[in-house]
Amino acid sequence: MTRMTRREALATAGAAAVGSTLGAPGAGAQTPEKAVKRGRLRQSVCRWCYAKIPLEEFCRSAAAMGLTAVDLLQPEEWEVAAKHGLTCSTGFPGQGGGSIPDGLNNRALHDTIVKTFEGVLPKAKQMGVPNLITFFGNRRGMADNEAADNCIACLTRLAPIAEANGVTIVVELLNSKVDHADYQGDHTAFGVKVVKAVNSPKIKLLYDIYHMQIMEGDVIRTIQQNKEWFAHYHTGGVPGRHELDATQELQWPAIVKAILDTGYMGYFAHEFIPTRDPMTSLREAVVLCDV
Question: What is the pLDDT of residues 217-235, one digit of tens each?
Answer without folding.
Answer: 999 999 999 999 999 999 9
